[in-house]
């Protein structure tokens, strides 16, 4: 194989891994937002917006 | 503290199984190796020290999750955690020492015997025994931290091994290289052996402190 | 004095997740934009750069390999600092930070290993050598995987934060020992011959793209870390909301 193949493979691997990571994090965020929206639609809200809830503080 | 040490020894002795299981695992791992690499005695003699070390490492990792499990089951762990922090660290150290006597020491004693079966030279066999004597406590000490972290988890045993194995790489490297150096002439035996001892001492500080912190954290 | 007071105030204010979310909403787009910009400049410079007379075009692999390796180490350092924050000050965001950083660190370590292997095949003739640097990175990768496994096993955020912080710190203390022992092991087993890559100093024409890419990757890390932290906070909020909802249902019966 030529050197260019290895370079292409490396950049491909970088694209795949970093792209996958970005996608995974983005989808995770959307899923969480959807969950919160669904809960709020059911009328379940946080009792106070500014408190440290569930943060283990 | 002395009383605790003897109590732990007696308890483990009565339970019996754990100590013997570790030893049996060690024997089984070493016995399986020739089936994998073939019965060539020269080759076995060359890789023998490494095989013994890896076998002993795996055997001591496997028993680790038992370190605090018994105390957790009978509720004693909650009392242990209530002590001052320095007492807690000392308790962990003593419990780890007792655990090592039960599970680690048999491995050290059995090593020369297996070394003969692996066609390792007697001198190298002795060196393996000496390095195991110094090195396996390090595994138990850093393992105490892992056992404390995983104490409240189901399926903790495998997790402890996964968490602790990377940290044991230095112990393995210096253990095997000093065992090797005892027979291959130009390499000196003492420098890796002394570094191994130093690692054990470092782990004797890090392990119990981290384990004590983790026990506190998981009992909150 | 007022300086310290102000910074302490800023620090404790940040401990409030809602404020952190607001801040991250404002900061996030800038970080993301900066990442895209520097990444584009870095890639352009990287492909403009002349080929190395020894390595040929494979030198371009270095433009992602070196920054990925740098991030793999920086990510663990960020985690160790967060772990101290979590254990000493019990800063609630520190737990979140450790948890969010681990998968990112694992991905960049994997990327460094893969690109290193792809560089090694044409240069050394094999995919993998048990070279000191590769081996210690492999151990680092295992440590990241262990942390992720621990995170998956622990679901109660209040307890898991401190436990994983302890593991991170024990690992951090161990990294120099592991590095030292792997170097020792390598010199014992392999003659250092072909594997010396840090021979001549890097030519500026290669150094500039390398630095730009390093900055781009660093920005990328902080962007991803920020968003992952935000996700983690939301995840915990959902947990609390669900618990509250269950309790309300229980009370109304």
UniProtKB/TrEMBL annotation, chain A:
<keyword id="KW-0997">Cell inner membrane</keyword>
<comment type="function">
    <text>Required for the export of heme to the periplasm for the biogenesis of c-type cytochromes.</text>
</comment>
<keyword id="KW-0812">Transmembrane</keyword>
<keyword id="KW-0813">Transport</keyword>
<keyword id="KW-0201">Cytochrome c-type biogenesis</keyword>
<protein>
    <recommendedName>
        <fullName>Heme exporter protein D</fullName>
    </recommendedName>
</protein>
<comment type="similarity">
    <text>Belongs to the CcmD/CycX/HelD family.</text>
</comment>
<dbReference type="Pfam" id="PF04995">
    <property type="entry name" value="CcmD"/>
</dbReference>
<keyword id="KW-1133">Transmembrane helix</keyword>
<dbReference type="InterPro" id="IPR007078">
    <property type="entry name" value="Haem_export_protD_CcmD"/>
</dbReference>
<keyword id="KW-1003">Cell membrane</keyword>
<feature type="transmembrane region" description="Helical">
    <location>
        <begin position="6"/>
        <end position="26"/>
    </location>
</feature>
<keyword id="KW-0472">Membrane</keyword>
TrEMBL record, chain B:
<keyword id="KW-1003">Cell membrane</keyword>
<feature type="transmembrane region" description="Helical">
    <location>
        <begin position="158"/>
        <end position="177"/>
    </location>
</feature>
<comment type="similarity">
    <text>Belongs to the CcmB/CycW/HelB family.</text>
</comment>
<keyword id="KW-0201">Cytochrome c-type biogenesis</keyword>
<keyword id="KW-1133">Transmembrane helix</keyword>
<keyword id="KW-0812">Transmembrane</keyword>
<protein>
    <recommendedName>
        <fullName>Heme exporter protein B</fullName>
    </recommendedName>
</protein>
<keyword id="KW-0472">Membrane</keyword>
<feature type="transmembrane region" description="Helical">
    <location>
        <begin position="189"/>
        <end position="215"/>
    </location>
</feature>
<feature type="transmembrane region" description="Helical">
    <location>
        <begin position="12"/>
        <end position="37"/>
    </location>
</feature>
<feature type="transmembrane region" description="Helical">
    <location>
        <begin position="43"/>
        <end position="64"/>
    </location>
</feature>
<dbReference type="InterPro" id="IPR026031">
    <property type="entry name" value="Cyt_c_CcmB_bac"/>
</dbReference>
<keyword id="KW-0997">Cell inner membrane</keyword>
<dbReference type="InterPro" id="IPR003544">
    <property type="entry name" value="Cyt_c_biogenesis_CcmB"/>
</dbReference>
<dbReference type="Pfam" id="PF03379">
    <property type="entry name" value="CcmB"/>
</dbReference>
UniProtKB/TrEMBL annotation, chain C:
<dbReference type="InterPro" id="IPR003557">
    <property type="entry name" value="Cyt_c_biogenesis_CcmC"/>
</dbReference>
<keyword id="KW-1133">Transmembrane helix</keyword>
<dbReference type="InterPro" id="IPR002541">
    <property type="entry name" value="Cyt_c_assembly"/>
</dbReference>
<feature type="transmembrane region" description="Helical">
    <location>
        <begin position="202"/>
        <end position="227"/>
    </location>
</feature>
<protein>
    <recommendedName>
        <fullName>Heme exporter protein C</fullName>
    </recommendedName>
</protein>
<feature type="transmembrane region" description="Helical">
    <location>
        <begin position="27"/>
        <end position="47"/>
    </location>
</feature>
<dbReference type="InterPro" id="IPR045062">
    <property type="entry name" value="Cyt_c_biogenesis_CcsA/CcmC"/>
</dbReference>
<keyword id="KW-0997">Cell inner membrane</keyword>
<keyword id="KW-0472">Membrane</keyword>
<feature type="transmembrane region" description="Helical">
    <location>
        <begin position="132"/>
        <end position="151"/>
    </location>
</feature>
<comment type="function">
    <text>Required for the export of heme to the periplasm for the biogenesis of c-type cytochromes.</text>
</comment>
<dbReference type="Pfam" id="PF01578">
    <property type="entry name" value="Cytochrom_C_asm"/>
</dbReference>
<keyword id="KW-0812">Transmembrane</keyword>
<feature type="transmembrane region" description="Helical">
    <location>
        <begin position="101"/>
        <end position="120"/>
    </location>
</feature>
<feature type="transmembrane region" description="Helical">
    <location>
        <begin position="67"/>
        <end position="89"/>
    </location>
</feature>
């Amino acid at each position: 194989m030529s050197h260019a193949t290895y370079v292409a493979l490396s950049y491909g691997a970088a694209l795949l891994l970093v792209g996958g990571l970005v996608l995974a994090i983005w989808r995770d965020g959307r899923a969480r937002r959807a969950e919160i929206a669904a809960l709020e639609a059911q009328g379940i809200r946080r009792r106070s917006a500014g408190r440290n809830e569930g943060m283990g503080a | 503290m002395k009383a605790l040490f003897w109590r732990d020894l007696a308890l483990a002795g009565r339970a019996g199984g754990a100590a013997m299981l570790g030893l049996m695992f060690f024997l089984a791992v070493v016995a399986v190796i020739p089936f994998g690499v073939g019965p060539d005695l020269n080759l076995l003699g060359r890789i023998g020290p490494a095989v013994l070390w890896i076998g002993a490492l795996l055997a001591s990792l496997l028993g680790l999750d038992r370190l605090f499990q018994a105390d957790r089951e009978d509720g004693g762990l909650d009392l242990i955690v209530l002590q001052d922090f320095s007492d807690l660290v000392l308790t962990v150290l003593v419990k780890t020492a007792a655990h090592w006597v039960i599970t680690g020491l048999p491995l050290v004693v059995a090593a020369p015997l297996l070394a003969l079966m692996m066609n390792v030279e007697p001198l190298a066999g002795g060196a393996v025994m000496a390095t195991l004597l110094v090195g396996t406590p390090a595994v138990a000490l850093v393992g105490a931290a892992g056992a404390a972290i995983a104490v409240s988890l189901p399926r903790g045993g495998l997790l402890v091994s996964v968490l602790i194995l990377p940290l044991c790489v230095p112990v393995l490297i210096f253990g095997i290289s000093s065992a090797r150096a005892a027979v291959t002439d130009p390499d000196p035996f003492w420098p890796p052996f002394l570094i191994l001892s130093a690692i054990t001492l470092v782990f004797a500080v890090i392990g119990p402190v981290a384990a004590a912190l983790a026990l506190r954290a998981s009992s909150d | 004095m007022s300086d310290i007071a102000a910074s302490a105030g800023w620090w404790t204010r940040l401990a409030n997740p809602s404020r952190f979310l607001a801040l991250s909403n404002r900061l996030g787009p800038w970080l993301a934009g900066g990442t895209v910009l520097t990444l584009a400049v870095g890639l352009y410079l990287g492909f403009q750069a002349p080929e190395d007379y020894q390595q040929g075009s494979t030198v371009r692999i270095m433009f992602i390999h070196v920054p990925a390796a740098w991030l793999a180490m920086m990510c663990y350092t960020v985690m160790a600092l967060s772990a101290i924050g979590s254990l000493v000050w019990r800063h609630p965001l520190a737990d979140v930070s450790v948890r969010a950083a681990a998968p990112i660190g694992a991905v960049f370590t994997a990327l460094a290993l893969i690109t290193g292997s792809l560089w090694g095949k044409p240069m050394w003739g094999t995919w993998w050598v048990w070279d000191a640097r590769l081996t210690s990175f492999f151990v680092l990768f295992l440590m990241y995987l262990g942390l992720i496994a621990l995170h998956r096993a622990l679901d109660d955020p209040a307890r898991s934060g401190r436990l994983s912080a302890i593991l991170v710190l024990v690992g951090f203390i161990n990294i120099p020992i592991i590095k030292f022992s792997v170097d020792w092991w390598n010199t014992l087993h392999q003659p250092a011959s072909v594997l010396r890559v840090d021979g001549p100093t890097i030519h500026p024409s290669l150094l500039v793209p390398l630095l730009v890419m390093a900055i781009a990757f660093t920005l990328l890390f902080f962007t991803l870390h920020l968003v992952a932290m935000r996700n983690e906070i939301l995840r915990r909020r959902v947990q609390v909301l669900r618990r509250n909802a269950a309790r309300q249902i229980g009370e109304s019966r």
